[in-house]
Amino acid sequence: MLKLSKRVEYALLSVQEMARRRGNVVSAKDIATRFEISQTLVAKVLQQLAQKNIIRSFHGVHGGYELALEPQCLSIADVIEAIEGRSGAIVECQDHHGHDEANCNVLSTCTIREPLSILQERIAATFNSMTVAELTPQNIVPLIIDL
Known about the structure:
Layout: H1 6-20, H2 28-35, H3 39-51, E1 55-58, E2 64-67, H4 76-84, H5 113-129
Antiparallel strand pairs: 1-2
Helix pairs in contact: 1-3, 1-4, 2-3
């Protein structure tokens, strides 16, 4: 099944917390404490997000991070790509970043490539259409995906 990496999970928790506390600088320690997760990994994820201009960093005693964009302008896909550097293909032949059809052992007889391509497009569309604003508790609504 499709599974997001721990790094992506921490990135999403981090941007969610920044959206929730909009207007305040949030530290890696704040996020790690709130969610009871590794501060070291949170700090690494925050550095990646800052390098990709998803968040801004502030140095000093009262330093930390804040979103660089409004939560409704930042998609889940933006966060995933900032951490993973790719869209997260569900099968290798759908990954257009370094894998090609030559890596497929059943290419000549495969009957699921096109249906999985459609599924991949729908997953990508969902990640692109859902924003960080929708991750904040007051904005959470059930997500129904028509597959």
